[in-house]
Amino acid sequence: MSGETLEFSGCNFFRIRLAYSILSGRPIRIVNIRKNDDRPGIRDFEAKLIGLLEKVTNGTKVEISRTGTQVTFRPGMITGGIVNVDCGTDRCISYFLEPLILLSPFCKLAMTIKLKGVTNAPGELSVDGMKASWLKVYNKFVLNDEKLDIKIQCRGLKPEGGGVVIFTAPIVKTLRPVKRQQVGKVCKIRGQAYVSKVTPSLAYRMIDAAKKAMHGYIADVFIAVDQRKGDAGGASPGYGLFLTAETTEGVVYQAEAISRPKGEPGNPILPEDIGIEAGHALLQQIYMGGALDSSAQVLASTFMTLCPKDVSHFLYGPLPMYSVHTLRHLKQFFEIEFKMEDYRKVQKEDEADLRTGSLDKALITAVGMSLVWRILRDEIEAGNIEIDTLNAEPDALQDIKKVFPNIFANEFVSSIIEHESTLKNSTSLISHESPIQSTADYHVSSYPTESFEPFETLGEIETIGTTENEDSDCEIIYSGPAVFLPLAMPKAELFDKDYGLSEQEKREESERLKAAKQYRKALLSGKTKKRKQKRQSKIYREIVYEKLSTKFAIPPEDFRDVVDEIMEEEFPDHQIETGAIMALQHESEMMLTKMMCLASHLADYADRETLRKKDIDFLKFLMSKNMEGCSFAM
Questions:
Q1: From residue 135, how far is each of 17, 56, 97, 144, 634 by CA, in Å?
Q2: Run of H or E residues at 152
Q3: Which residues pair with 72 in a beta bridge?
Q4: How many CA atoms within 13 Å lie on the side-chain side of 530?
Q5: Residues in Cβ contact with 257 at an 8 Å cutoff, skipping those fewer than 6 apart
Q6: pLDDT score of 270
Q7: Helix, coil or strand: residue 197
Q8: What is the value of pTM for the model shown?
Q9: What is the pLDDT of residue 169?
Q10: CA-to-CA dists, residue 36 to 45, 267, 279, 416, angstroms
């Protein structure tokens, strides 16, 4: 990838272009926006979208021409945070949610966005649809989905809106590659008949009509009624029906039908017609098939691109035009190509008899390119990482010129990494798996010193500081000023050459490592400075004698479900015996118990009764050093 400005024409795919500009770090220019329209230029909802993206980023610059027909967008760093936005009533809130969901895993702060506007609108994907189908795909790519949710506080229909939606997303260290090819058979259908400021009898009429439309397909059908009154029902009357179908493999399809908005010309749509329309739409979506809903193909394609450098594949149903253009935009922004295979050629023989719908499916395969290089560029622009071009090898210097064309002019406004392979022999600043390489291997201060707490003393031992971000697991050994770094500087060379560290700083570094090693010995031997009387509790005896009680602490059924899910996604060609699962649970619980015991020693050493996150962080630091050759010895 290069740092030049990409140029597009027209107003189509406006939100996806802005989102990909932020993710890739590439500035864009959009021209000829409705230039032949009676009202040329961008609309109010597009201006609101630009304002929303400015709030969740830092340093974004936007230039809009006087006529509004040209927009220049220079992206900044993704920050996230808590934001309240009024989306207006021109477009559904899902229009604004789409780029937010794509950006949410890569934010500096956990994202909590409150959006006000229209939750359900004819001809648009509703917020209910995104919650049911998009978050299901989102969960496949992340390990931490604890705070991932879309909550509809108030339902708002056109023309007045009045809906309120809260979107929350956790910070994700990295996405994981996904392999989803199995579709399964539909096992249940669920739905929601919502009515706002109208009689609830309309909901039951929609439910009866929908069940008749799907009669004979499946028996497990349940549709609830969502009646909203007062502020919870928004500012406009209306009704609609939202349906989902879930397969035995966890795939969710969705469909929806809604009444005509108040004041819109035309005859009102009967509840029976809405029920039949929603039922037929769901059956059509089931027939199209795929390992995800067709509306979520955009999300899957984007996350497959941003995964670490590993192979991901997803089985898509027939690709809608929006998905086709999404793949084209991904190639323009990230220079990544997808391999598309006809499902007829790759399906297994036993799957042919399952009658899983249309054969016009495609197996999409991609190799992720990760956001490591985007993060590296942001850190260099911020002045937290500086590259020593004076001491670099000639070959490495040529690579620098390719990936950072403006480095010798001290300009990093539009520089960006071209490809990972360019740096494979010249730099080891950052690993492919983690956004920031651990300083256990390379001495890199990757964040400004102001973002770290001062060193805190535990007895005679100084522990390292941690970032203000509670979810960050980046360990920092040196928290001094930014220094010039060579392209590759292993820890062994840290004290052989002078890269800006004073003798005092080198001694402090050596003393910290020595103190950590001494404390680990005391920790493992039980001879901590302020060790309290040894606990003779059941949990302590289990640790000492390497025994567990007759019952597991974690319910075996829940543990088995987790293991089965991991085996299905990561090792689909292998199986695991029940005895192996029990042995795995035994060792997992022993490891957890020992970690808690070691952390309690740390708390005793600091003369406090509460285990804190920094205790676990310090244990991770000690074990990453592996000073005694083992991690969990007692």
A1: 21, 20, 12, 13, 42
A2: strand 149-154
A3: 29, 63
A4: 13
A5: 240, 241, 274, 275, 277, 278, 281
A6: 94
A7: coil
A8: 0.62
A9: 93
A10: 19, 32, 40, 36
Is 572 within a domain?
yes
The region, left, alpha or beta by phi > 0 then psi within -120 to 50, assigned to residue 616 is alpha
Q: In this structure, is residue 134 part of a structural domain?
A: yes
Helix residue ranges per DSSP H, 8-153: 14-24, 44-55, 94-103, 127-129, 135-141
Q: How many domains does the chain have?
A: 2
Cα distance between residue 428 and residue 118, in whole Å: 48
Separation between Cα atoms, residue 278 and residue 200, nearest integer Å: 18
Domain containing residue 179? 79-345
- Determine the average pLDDT of the residues in 215-221: 89
Q: What is the pLDDT of residue 377?
A: 57
In angstroms, the CA 625 to CA 453 distance is 22
Q: What is the rounded distance in angstroms from the CA atom of residue 535 to the CA atom of residue 92?
A: 59
* Per-residue model confidence (pLDDT) at position 627: 45
Q: Of the candidates 345, 377, 398, which is a domain's last residue? A: 345
| Chain segment 374-397, per-residue pLDDT in tens | 555 555 655 555 565 556 566 666
Look at residue 359 and tell me if it is in a domain. no
Q: d(Cα 451, Cα 379) in Å, to the nearest integer?
A: 13
Rg (CA), the chain: 28
**Secondary element (H or E) of residue 192:** strand 186-196
Does any domain span residue 287? yes
Q: How many CB atoms lie within 10 A of CB 266?
A: 6
Cβ-based burial of 242 (10 A; exposed 0-12, middle 13-18, buried ≥19): buried
pLDDT digits (tens, 9 = 90+) for 474-531: 332 222 333 232 333 333 333 334 444 567 766 766 766 666 556 555 555 554 444 4
Query: Using an 8 Å Cβ cutoff, are 366 and 338 in contact?
Result: yes
**How many other CB atoms are there within 10 angstroms of residue 514's CB atom?**
11
Structure tokens at 493: 């060379």
- Angle formed by the axes of helices 44-55 and 14-24, nearest 10°: 20
Residue count (the chain): 634
With the CA atoms of 9, 14, 16 and 22 taken in that order, what torsion angle do they form, in degrees rounded to the nearest 10? 90
Q: Per residue in 46-58, pLDDT tens?
A: 999 999 999 999 9
Q: Say whether 333 sits in a helix, a strand or coil.
A: helix
Q: What is the pLDDT of residues 331-340, one digit of tens each?
A: 999 988 899 9
**Which of 298, 329, 345 marks a domain boundary?**
345
Write phi, then psi, for 6 (nearest 5 degrees). -85, 140
Residue 427 has pLDDT above 50, yes or no: no
DSSP E strands in 317-440: the ranges are 339-342, 362-367, 386-387
Spatial distance between the Cα atoms of 547 and 542, rounded to a whole number of angstroms: 5
Q: Mark out the alpha helices in 483-610 (DSSP H runs).
A: 503-525, 538-544, 556-570, 578-605
Under 8 Å between Cβ of 98 and 150: no
Q: Please give the pLDDT value at position 439.
A: 30
pLDDT confidence bin for 612, thresholds 50/70/90: confident
